[in-house]
Amino acid sequence: MEPIQQHPEIAAYLAVDEAIDHEHPVVRETVAALTHEGDDAYTYARAAFAYVRDTIPHSADSGDPRVTWRASDVLATRNGICYAKSIALTALLRARAIPAGLCYQRLTDDDGTNPVVHGLVALWLPGHDRWARVDPRGNKPGVDAQFSLGAERLAWAVREELGEVDYPAVHATPPEAILHALRHARDRAELWRNLPAQL
Questions:
Q1: Neighbour tally for 167: CB within 10 Å
Q2: Which of 52, 98, 138, 170 has the fewest CB atoms in 10 Å of its CB?
Q3: SS3 for 101?
Q4: How many Å apart are CA 2 and CA 143, to the nearest integer?
Q5: Structural domain that includes position 23
Q6: pTM, entire model
């Protein structure tokens, strides 16, 4: 699936907003900790991906009831669902002038029921000349997402026969349905009951 840039200006994928708050001190401190002398954009992007994937547990795996939606809060609390972790990785990339946006899949249970939207990140690295999707959700048994600019190594491959969908749009800002769910949930249990089923 070829990601499609939703906003015509690449500058939109470097911008700061309320959720992707990459000028926040917590984000800047994390960037500094991940940056090593001589790192090129690829090396930094891979390190930022691994950091979000591996050191910030997905709250469904950890059982953490807190709901985060700003990048700075995700990094400060080390907690978030896929949407929040994707926002955090996007902020870490933009803080190093790497264009990054948000992508989504519609996934279901193995019988095609209980559809839910799953969050990913798309990034544009120098010399790569196209958007590449990565999934910072966090690995667990049966899930092995990896940083790859070639063949995608996402947490889940879409099963079209079950009605699953790869949404091609690369969003410069989180879609309203995603932000609404995150902002209005008192805890993860409430968020789980109100996750968007489609975009």
A1: 20
A2: 98
A3: strand
A4: 22
A5: 4-193
A6: 0.97
Residue 199 lies in a domain: no
Using CA atoms, how far apart are residues 191 and 80, in angstroms rounded to an integer?
11
Residue 198 lies in a domain: no
Q: What are phi and psi of 58, to 5 degrees?
A: -70, 130
Tokens of 38: 């001589």
**pLDDT tens across 25-48, in order?**
999 999 999 998 888 999 999 999
How far, rounded to the nearest angstrom, does the alpha carbon of residue 57 sit from its chain's CA centroid? 13
DSSP state of 134: E
CATH number at residue 18: 3.10.620
Q: Is residue 74 part of a domain?
A: yes
CB 13 within 8 A of CB 102: no
**What is residue 39's predicted lDDT score, i.e. its pLDDT?**
87
Give the number of domains in the chain: 1
Query: How confident is the prediction for the chain on average, in pLDDT?
Result: 96
